[in-house]
Structure formats: C-alpha cells, structure tokens
Amino acid sequence: MTRTVIRRVQATFDAKAHAFRHYAIGLVGIVLITLTASMLLGTQFPFDVAALTAINALAIMGLSILYGWSGQISLAHGAFLGLGAYTTAFLRPWTADLPGGPVLELGAVILLGILAGLLVGLPALRVTGLQLAILTVAFAEVFAWGLIFLHPITGGTQGKFVGALELGPFSTADSRFRFTVALGLAAIGGFLMIRLRSSPLGRAMTATRDSELTAVSVGIRPAHTKLLAFVISAVYAGVAGWMFAYYIFAVTPGYFTLFTNIYFLVAVILGGRGLLLGAWLGGAYLVVVPEFVRSFGSGNLYPVVSGIILVLVILLAPEGFARLPQRVLDWRRSRFTGHSGGVTALSPADAPEEHGNG
Amino acid sequence: MPSGAPPLAVLKMLSDAVQVTVNGVGQGLLYALVLFGILLVFQVSKVVNFAHGQLVMFGGLGSLYLILAFDVPLWLAIAVIIPGVAIIAILTDVIVIRRLPSPPDGRDLVLTLGLLLAFTSFGENVLQQGSPRRYPVLTDETFVVAGAFFQADRLIGLAAAVVIFVLSIMFLRRTRFGLIVRAAAEDPVIAEGLGYNVRLIRTVTWGAAGAIAAIAGIFIAARIPVQAHYTEDALIKAFIAGIIGGLHRFTVPILAAVGLGLFENWFTYFTGAVFRVPGVFGLVVLILAFAPKRFLEVRGEARA
C-alpha cells in the first residue's frame, strides 16, 4: 500500500516536472518565433501579436480551469477581464506616481477578481448547463450596463484612458516591453495552472465535474470546489484585464460585450478545454485569425471565418486543436489495428490529462 | 367636473396600466414567438439552437434587404422571406446539425454559437445596407382605448403571435400528425421502428421553426431599427424564459416569456428605461439563485 502511494506520488512529480519542462521550452519557442518574425518583417508588429496572444492565453487559462476542469460553463469571462481592465484604468491616476503602483493595481485587481468570482460563483452553485450559461450572461449584461451607466467612474461609452506602464527605463509604449510583461504573466499563469492540475484542488475539480456523488464519497466538497474554480477563473481574467489595459492604453465598453464572452468560450473549446496548450492555441486563434482575415482586406468577415472554423472543429476535432495530433494518431492506429480510436484513447497511457497540461 | 367622477390622476393611472400591460404582453408574446421555434427544435432534435436569433434576424433584415435592394413591395418581401428562412433552417439542420452525435453532449451549444457568429457576419456584411433602418409599417392606423394609445401595427403582431401559438399547440395536441411529431420527439427510435419517417418529421419541424422565426423577425423589426444585431435582446430574453420555464414543454416557458415582457414593461414604467437591463437580469439572477430547485429541474437536456 505504502509503495503504491509512493509510486503514485513519484509519478505525479515526474508528470509535473515533465509539464514544467515542456512549458518552459514552449515559452522559449514563442520568444524565438516572435524575434525571428520581427527581424524578417522588419517591424515590431509580431511583438504586438504575441503580447495579445499571451494576454488572451492567460484569460483563457482561467476559463479552461472553470469549464475544462470543473465543468462549469461561463459567459461572463469577458466581464471579469473588463473588471480587471477598468479597475486598472480607475486606479491609474493615483498609482501612476507611487512606487510599486503596478503591484497595488494588481493587488486590487486580484481582490476584486476574488469578490466577483464569489458573487457569480455563489448563485452558480445551484444551477448547471444552460441555466448556468444564462446566469453568467445576466451578470455580464449587468456589468456591460454598469460600464455605461456609471459614466462618472467608467467614462461611459467614451471609456477611460490608461496610458503606458512605466517601470524604470522601460515602458509599455514599446511593443517589446509589452510583449515581455504579457509573456511573463502568461508564463506565471501557466506554471500555476500546471501546479494546480496535480494538486488536490485540481483533482477535486475534475472529480466534481465527472461525478459529484463520487467526489463527495471521497471527502471532496463540490460546492467549495466549484466556488474556488470560479474565483480562480475570475482572478486569471482580472490579471489578464490589467495587462490588456496597458496593451490597449484606453478601455471602452466595446471591448467587453456579449460577443467577447462568446469568443472566450469559443477559444477554450477550439484550443482544447482543460489544457494549457489549448489556452495558448485558443489565444492565438483569437488574435491570428482576425489578422489573417484582415490581411485579405476584409476584417469584417472575421466572424464568418471564425464561425465556419468553429463548426468544422466541432465536427472534425471536437476536443480542440490541442488534442488533434492525438486524434490523428488514434485514427491511424485504428486503421492499422482495426480498433476504434475511442477504445485506444481509453488506455491510461494515452489519456491526455494524465500527462499534465503541457 | 361632475361630482362622483373619478379624479384625473386615477384615470391617468388606469390608462397607463392598460398601456403598460398591453405593451408588456405584446413584447412578451414576441419573446414567446422567438422561443417557440427554439422549443420546437429542442423537443424534436434535442438540440439547443443558439443561432435561432439569427434566423429571426434573417426574417426582418432579409425582407428589408429585398425591399431596398430589389424594390419589391412589402407583401412580396414577406412572402419570399418566410419560406426562405424555413429553407435556411432546414439546410442548417441537414448540412450541419445532423452530423452531431446523439446526444450532442453540449456540442450543439458550441456548434450553434459558431453558426450565430457566421450568420451575424453575413447579416452585417451582406444584408445590412448602411446604418440601422426603420422597417416599413404594415399599417399606420392608431387608436385610443380607455385613454391608452395603440398602434394597429403592433396589435397585428400580438394577434398573429396568439394565433400561431393556438394553432400550433392545437395541431400538436389534437391532430394525428401532431401526435406523431410528439412521439418522434419522445423516442425517435421507437417511432422509426413503427414506420414513421423521423427524418422527414425533423425536417418539417426545423422548417416550421424557421418560418415562425421569420414571422417573429418581421414583427420585432416593426418595433425597433433593423440591423444585424437587432434580435439579440429578444433572443436572450427568449432563452431566459425557455431555460427558466423548461425547454421540454410549451405552456410554462411561453407564459414565462409573456411574464418577462410584462415585468420588463412595468419595471421600466416605475424606474425608467435606464434601469431596464439590471431589472430584468437581476430578476433572472434572483430566480436562478433562490427559486426552489424543483422549479428549475431540467429534463431532456444532455450537457457536457
């Protein structure tokens, strides 16, 4: 018995170390690709694309934890992001000249994220599925209304100016520094996600998602676990919102509409829910596809392309881009062995979540 | 003023009450008309169609496009758009939705969200001609009842919605084909085994849902400026009513939709239009957070 436990603990440590290593390599890869693209194109534009991808990835990590691990759908994630961005914009006039101002802003954003997560998460404990989706839409709509109605604080439809983040000689007015800060935050968010995945809380989330009764039988408190998932998700989105405010320099209600919430959910599903790689792929999808469509001279067609891609992915790769290679491997294996991919995937060695989230 | 006559303030209050109630019922019936298509589709194919609002949008914006781009009369645009949207709904089911596994396990939500994005963009880029426009009125007749002011145009929408509900529910409950549709909705495998063409039933249902969506789109267009997003509000309200009332039945969610319209209008009357959004969505939060669980039970909904 003791040996089995030790073996399992050792396996968990190995998987975590493996995932950490893979993630670090992935981050280095992102830096190299961005540098190379910038040099080849002779502009700093790739830094902007990569920075926005990192911001989106950080936000999507939160939604991936909530939806992918604990199974709770949310159409209020854009509102959490907006809360972080507007809090930053609101505090900026006071914190701009304070030493450690950004840290104070981040602290406030995290605190408000926790409160917002509790506010949405508490009533969300009673409902699931579509009812939960509508509940979160209700909160998001009230938030969007508040941005207009509370115009003395939020600036109404005109929004609020944020400006650049200055840290010593560095400023987010420079694309390279924006990219560095965004990547740093997304890196921290990713490492925390890997850590959380193999922690008791992470396992409690997936257990609660799969079977609440079974989870209760092993001492897990589903309500507590689901609530924490909401709080963590809101904090991720809030911190992403802090960075977004400095990326975009001015926040307006147009960035945090119902469609923003839909796009975040779409990105989680397209990337691969519950997976760190999926969060990055989803984040890249939200940035790269519009840029790609715009390069053909018609940015307005983005939703058409996005919608068609989403339909195709759901039909052809329902588990998202991140699990596509595994699906192709299963398909090839089933062609050679005559077994169906689904049976092969039941093997513990092939189950993606057992390998961490890298 | 003759003695015994009610004071002016009371008369004003009564006429306001009539006006607000009729407006609320009218608005609620439009939500219910949007919801009706969602319910039909859900009950027969067990799919939650988030893109239904865009079928509604095709009804109003599509007919307006025909009027503006091809200079066709209003009646002809309506006559073309209703079967047109029915065909779009059928093609959506045949080409895309039927490829989902059964039960769809939440993929229907995501898939139809994708369709929502694509259809909205089609509306924005192809059908919408510049800034939001007023829809031509069916009639500009107005009249006053008990001091309340009514537009005939809106009352036609209200009457049409009632007629559609009554006929559809009678059809489903009282006719043999309606019984077959309900049987196929309850257990398609057994219905198929008994020799009924379940695929055809499903196709007819999607077509009917599309046609009703187009009619709803036209009546909503008669109330607000038409653009690619003009049905979003009605779609959200319809879903709220459907999800609170239950997608597996007809009467309760339709009553919930009418109730929501009434609440919205009365709340706006007392607090002003600016508080409409927090009022309605606050009510949703309160219901979902505090209503007894047995009222919120969901049947026939397979979710991830």
Write the layout of secondary structure elements.
The complex is a heterodimer of chains A (358) and B (304).
Chain A (H helix, E strand, L loop, with lengths): L1 H40 L3 H25 L7 H19 L5 H24 L4 H21 L1 H4 L5 E2 L4 E2 L2 E2 L3 H23 L2 H11 L1 H6 L4 H27 L1 E2 L6 H14 L4 H20 L6 H15 L7 H14 L3 H5 L13
Antiparallel strand pairs in A: 1-4, 2-3
Helix pairs in contact in A: 1-2, 1-7, 2-7, 2-10, 2-11, 2-12, 3-4, 3-5, 3-10, 4-10, 7-10, 8-10, 11-12
Chain B lengths: L7 H38 L6 H19 L3 H23 L10 H21 L14 E4 L2 E4 H23 L1 H11 L1 H6 L4 H24 L10 H14 L5 H21 L4 H15 L14
Antiparallel strand pairs in B: 1-2
Helix pairs in contact in B: 1-5, 1-8, 1-9, 1-10, 2-3, 2-4, 2-8, 3-8, 5-6, 9-10
Q: Specify the structural class of chain A.
A: mainly alpha
**Low-confidence residue ranges of chain A:** 340-358
Shape verdict of chain B: globular
What is the CA-based Rg of chain B, rounded? 20 Å
Which structural class fits the helix and strand makeup of chain B?
mainly alpha
- The beta-strand count of chain A equals 4
Q: Summarize the biggest pleated sheet of chain B.
A: 2 strands, antiparallel
Could you tell me the mean pLDDT of chain A?
A: 85
